[in-house]
Amino acid sequence: MENCIFCQIITGRIPSVKVYEDDRVFAFEDINPISEGHTLIIPKTHAENLFEMTGADLSAVIHASKKVASGIQKALSPDGIAMLQLNGRGANQVVMHYHMHLVPRMPGAGRLPITIWEIKAGDMDAIQKTGAKIAAAIE
Asked: Which is deepest, 86, 96, 99, 135, by most CB within 10 Å?
């Protein structure tokens, strides 16, 4: 898409710090990183979110994520790597082109808020009803 910043990065019209590329995906450093090595992996074919992704492109992004995460692990030796992917404005997706974040977590770094939540028992009746509703809607 002509106005998509990530599509423009793929074509080279906007510069980026590329770390990986193949025929289906492009991976580059986030210019507003949460931590050193924060990397984005995007499909070369424009898709706004998970719901628009083809199976082949989604598979390519996941395979590339593993490859790039291995490079991050080798280069930076983080304690862990968070994989984060947001879908829609309600989930705080800002760039409307599917992208996977790989966020290295270094020793002594604070926790990412999205990776922390209070563990409390849910209402099992409500959970079962919701699960059945979702299962019935899966095609």
From this structure: 99
